[in-house]
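Subgroup meeting minutes
Present: P.N., E.W., G.H.
Scribe: E.W.

1. P.N. recapped why we're keeping a running log of single-chain structure predictions: easier to compare across weeks, and new members can see raw inputs and outputs side by side.
2. G.H. added today's entry (225 aa).
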Amino acid sequence: MAACCTLALLVQNLYPTLRADIVTATGERRDVQLPDGSQLTLDAQSSVAFDFADGRREVQILAGQAYFRVVKDSAHPFRVLTGQLSVTVTGTAFNIDSTRQRVNVAEGSVRVSGPYAAEISLLPGDGVALSASGALQPNDQPVGQVAAWRQGRLILRQERIADVIDALRPYCRDVLLLRDNDLGEKRITGVYDLDDPDNALRAILRMHGGELRRVGPVLLIGRSR
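Output recorded in log:
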């Protein structure tokens, strides 16, 4: 079982890498200057492809998340795509998490649309998350906390443990496997160190009677025995 899970995750992570212009490794964060002068910070285990030909300014997030500081150019809007979301700006700073399909704005304004949602505008401190039904739901965040991962901080506000595990995967050398769905639905608030993901996860699980158990390269997550 553990071996199958490891193989599935390797295959899942390989496909975006083959299409990408920039890729980060486990635990790696990278600052990149794009061809138009805009700045991109890529989170761990993330990948992007971009198109700046013939006046276009388009970036596709293939995996993970990224923070953008976009050079203003009203004649050439800057567009970012995930599998579900489309974000359009002329000049601003914002974060997009393609794993959880979230957008949060630090500066300026952005326009966001989803597959079944009309385009809406966001200002600093505003955020949205794509729901399972395809609707854009408010997910505001203080400006000072937007993309806190750039400083190695994981800030949680009543987040499901299952979602926290997804946020920690890019920083973990081991495969994380949740074995208890009820535990995964428990909520967590706090600030944790992304650069020490194992201890962060142990601290989070202890609050709800959970534990980590190693089986080869897999860390099984469940209730304490």
